[in-house]
Amino acid sequence: MAKQTDAIALSTRSIDCIFEPETGFLRYVRSGNCELLRAIYGAVRDQDWNTVEPQVTIRELKRREDYFRVSFLVQCSLREIQFGWEGTIEADGLSLVFRFEGAAKSTFKKNRIGLCILHPIRECAGRPCRAEQVDGSWVEGEFPLHIAPHQPFKNFRRLVWQSEPELKAELTLNGETFEMEDQRNWTDASFKTYGTPLELPFPVTIQEGDFVVQSAELRVTSSRPSRPASSGVLALRFAAESTSKPMPQLGLCVASHGQALTSTEIKRLAELRLDHLRVDLHLSSADWERKYLQADAQANSISASLHAALFLTNDAESQLRKFIQLADLTRVKVCFIFHVNEKSTSQQWLMIAKRLMPGLTLVAGTNAYFAELNRQRPPRGFPAVYSISPQVHAIDDLSLFETLEAQPSTVESGLRFVSDSFFISPITLRPRFNPNATGMSADRPGELPAAVDPRQRLMQGALWTLGTIGALGSSRGVASLTFFESTGWRGLMETDTGSPIPEQFPSEPGEIFPVYSVFSALAGAKTIIQPTEQVPNGLAAFGFKGATNGKFQCAIGNIRRAPSTLRLQVPGEEIAGFRISDRGAFENFSAELDSGQITLELGGYSITILQCL
User: Fold this and answer.
1) Helix, strand, or coil here: 115?
2) Cα of 283 vs its chain's centroid, Å
3) What is the C-alpha separation between 474 and 468, in angstroms, rounded?
4) How far apart are CA 47 and CA 67, in angstroms?
5) Do 263 and 361 belong together in one domain?
6) For 336-364, what is each residue's pLDDT tens digit?
7) How far apart are CA 473 and CA 527, in angstroms?
8) Which of 52, 210, 360, 559 could make a disulfide contact with 401, Cβ separation 3.0–4.6 Å?
9) In this structure, are 397 and 497 located in the same domain?
10) Taking a C-beta distance cutoff of 8 angstroms, is the pair 456, 129 a contact?
């Protein structure tokens, strides 16, 4: 069969879903408007938990009334890893089966190979769930309402739950012992059922010729009427009474490439009116003083403060005294206190810092993800920090945008054990490092570094940033959001020297990325405003007001590849606005409102900024 790239819609009379030929994912398994499963897919993960990207070829596609079948071949290749598998998805009426049959074509170390099943947050969180253990006994439990630090279900082969009163689902698994984790710990919008319990040793060596055979069967029991029709038009409303809060302080990280800012870069960054730059200082290293002085000069040049992430050793008191002697504490407003041997800060280092730096905002927490904060909870009485990356588990566009749904859950759950506020820092497209790696890994010459994502310079990166500001900025308790880097291929614009690997990151010297335009549109925003109802799926949207004219504005992002139609209601009579192009430029337009409403045609992967007049 010819290679396909567009998602394939599949359905029976009672089940709808889509198959992605590019990833091999079966997504959004629904009955009517109720999502039963977020996804089923096969994963090959190496000894450092990196996901090996699949190359998918469809072999067969059959669709009849109340039946469908898809079979496809997948090749996973990365350096020494060579693994191929065949997937088969078959549905008939109220039953759906996903089969995974694979064989190793080389000998390599792995942490996981096999099926993963994702359960949606909205339909599952807080709802009862029964699990049949591998010994045949049953355990009564629930999908966690607040983010669970550890697995809510372990050692099972079957799950039974009720998404709605008239809709029951049963998931039967074969070929492995399964358990579940709460993926909101890493801002994935799901609970994940996966094979090979984490309590077993890993990594393990899989030999050439070894087979992996697994299956997942979903059975649905439904007394619901036929599914309702959808108009396809999205609706969004802002009103004078819409909930508002102060916009969190927005900032960036000092660029890791170490180059000084040019006069053009300083001018561009100053126009964003950023609150701060973050600098990471390992106080036991030989060059921390140089890094601090460079960061201090850059912050001064764009009229921003500094957030200093201080990485201590057991000689913390001496290290902090040296920092105090050098630092301009009128510019350093916040210090993150980390210890190099702790994933989350323990109280002893905070007490030393508090005694030596009584006038500064000291922040406890982790340089890694919310998972580390949730599992090793910080001392009360301090603000807390954690970082966010949307690509801990999956790297495709849909998974990237799905994390926007889960981001507020980290704040809501964290406020149960953090008595102050949150500094979410840094927020990056790709993970900066792997806190759970089991071996040493390094970037290889000629390959794009693991921390660099080509979408940094594309609309996908700008859209995810816009959605993140909306999702986290609207959350109670968020004091500050620190993104990316200032310049370079992890920043808002390319440096004058250009991309180090133009074949894989084809930016031009000095190129402005669309994500820069997001911060430009929000420059000086003091208030963030939520719509009156939940933002529809496929959109990222929020309102905001600036410090000068105080007029209502809103930012709308279409996070779908396909165009969308939006019926928007805002408090005004006329609007002016612009769209951000994929080159970061502004395309202006204006329109009159009809009783406060307007219908907008949103291009795929697009951002529109509106101001009410």
Assistant:
1) strand
2) 30
3) 10
4) 39
5) yes
6) 999 999 999 999 999 999 999 998 999 99
7) 9
8) 559
9) yes
10) no
β-pairing, 539-546 vs 525-529, is antiparallel
Is the separation of the CB atoms in 273 and 520 below 8 Å? Answer: no
Residue 198 CA to residue 574 CA, distance in Å, equals 57
Contact 466, 505 (CB under 8 A): no
Residue 193 and residue 133 share a domain: yes
Phi-psi region of 301 (alpha: psi -120 to 50; beta: other; left: phi over 0): alpha
pLDDT score at 524 = 92
Residue 243 within any structural domain of the chain: no
Q: Are 306 and 326 in contact (CB under 8 A)?
A: no
Which structural domain range is residue 365 located in?
A: 248-435+449-521
Q: How many whole angstroms from its chain centre is CA 593?
A: 35
For the chain, the domain total comes to 3
568 and 511 within one domain: no
Q: What is the pLDDT of residues 208-233, one digit of tens each?
A: 999 999 999 999 997 665 455 455 78
pLDDT digits (tens, 9 = 90+) for 233-270: 899 999 877 888 999 999 999 999 999 999 999 999 99
Residue 161, domain CATH: 2.70.98.10
Quote the tokens at residue 186: 């890493």
The CA distances from residue 573 to 552, 555, 587, 597, in Å, are: 12, 18, 21, 9
Strand-pairing partners, residue 168, are: 162, 221
Torsion of CA 504, 510, 515, 520, to 10 degrees: 180
Tokens of 85: 């598998």
Query: Mind giving me the DSSP string for 42-60?
Result: EEEEETTSPBPPEEEEEEE
The tokens describing 152, both together, are 């809510």
Encoded tokens for 166: 């008239």
Cβ partners under 8 Å of residue 533, min gap 6: 235, 236, 237
SS3 61: strand
The number of C-alpha atoms within 13 Å of 212 and in the hemisphere containing its C-beta is 25
- Given this model, what pLDDT does residue 229 score? 45
Q: How far apart are CA 296 and CA 299, in angstroms?
A: 5
Contact (Cβ atoms closer than 8 angstroms) between residue 404 and residue 427: no
CA distances from 6 to 65, 119, 528 (A): 22, 24, 36
Residue where a domain stops, chosen among 471, 494, 521: 521
Instruction: Identify the three-state secondary structure at position 489.
Output: coil
pTM for the complete prediction? 0.92
Closest Cα to residue 31, out of 287, 226, 285? 226
